Amino acid sequence: MNLFFVIKEGFSGIWRAKLPAVVTVVVGFLALVLLGLFATVSLSFFDIIDEVRGRVELEVFFPEPASDEYVTTLYGRIGELDGVREVTYISKDSAAAIFRQEFGKDIVDILGLNPLPRSAKVQVQPRHAAPDSLQGIVASIKGFDPTLDIRYNKIFLQQLEDNARLFTALTAGIGILIAIATVVLVGYTIRLAIYSRQQKIKTMRLVGATNWFISAPYVIEGGIQGILAGGFAALAIHLLSEQLLFRYEPGIYAVLNPSTYLVYPVLAGLGFLLGIFGSTVAVRKYLRKA
């Protein structure tokens, strides 16, 4: 019976204080929409980074005097290294064919010989494509033969990592600010509801009601407001994605759409948790003072 009363009071509290509840849901909705948009862009950004990392490759040039057997052995050992996804061997003839395809001329016709070295393109796994991890792979390859010439775009990869860190910090900071604002707003609304029912709370205490029994309806009220705000925010982002981006910006839609399916349930759950947390803090603070 007590549990039924607590749940009933949680729902009826919203109905008795309609305006504060609506204000909290609307403000929470706006905050969570903003948070959801940032989360969608962030997840898509990280997907793009992973895709770029998946294309990272090292070029290993073998010394000219090395025998074919020695090159074949090195090629096999490189492919066994941790973090290496695939190794593609490029012979002198293959290098000449690539030159012909890119420049439209045969290098043998130009120089009278083929000076292009034998090489291997080493594709690494995305999680090993960071500059520090690549340095480890390069060191391992150099350990096989210090005379190997290994090249990759260090400047581009470093810029990629720096931008990823900056974007992560920026997104996390904005997300935290929005979460704090949502908690404060929910807590403020719950506090107003508590103050409007001070006499009822005093009466409940006089008859022996515990703090849990008094605070539980307000916590439920905050959770309901939070999940409503999160649900409406998820719906708004869905409409923005499916109705606006899909129709007018299909390119952006294709990039962002996979991330939205992760954001929908997160927004609803986060709204519920923030509502619970905000109302819990507000109720505890009031009961401690009372």
Describe the structure.
The protein has 290 residues and is α+β, with helices and mostly antiparallel strands. It folds into two domains: 2-51 and 160-289, no CATH class; 57-151, Alpha-Beta Plaits, CATH 3.30.70.3040. The chain is built from ten helices and four strands. A four-stranded antiparallel sheet has the order 2-3-1-4. Helix 1 (2-16) packs across helix 9 (211-248) and helix 2 (18-54) runs antiparallel to helix 7. The radius of gyration is 31 Å and the shape is elongated. The mean pLDDT is 79.
Question: Outline of this structure?
Answer:
By secondary structure, the chain is an alpha+beta fold.
Name a few traits of the molecule.
Alpha-Beta Plaits, four-stranded antiparallel β-sheet, 290 residues, 4 strands, 10 helices, 77% helix, alpha+beta
What is the topological layout?
Layout: H1 2-16, H2 18-54, E1 57-61, H3 68-79, E2 84-90, H4 92-103, H5 107-111, E3 119-124, H6 131-144, E4 149-151, H7 154-195, H8 198-206, H9 211-248, H10 250-289
Antiparallel strand pairs: 1-3, 1-4, 2-3
Helix pairs in contact: 1-9, 2-7, 2-9, 2-10, 7-9, 7-10, 9-10
The number of strands is: 4
Order of helices and strands: HHEHEHHEHEHHHH
Low-confidence stretches: none
Strand content: 5-15%
Q: How widely separated are the two ends? A: 26 Å
Rg, Å, rounded: 31 Å
Number of domains: 2
Q: What is the structural class? A: alpha+beta
Order of adjacent strands in the largest pleated sheet: 2-3-1-4
Main β sheet profile: 4 strands, antiparallel
Q: Quaternary state, please?
A: single chain
Write down the overall mean pLDDT: 79
Binned, the helix content reads over 70%
Helix segment tally? 10
Which overall shape is indicated by the principal axes computed on the Cα atoms?
A: elongated
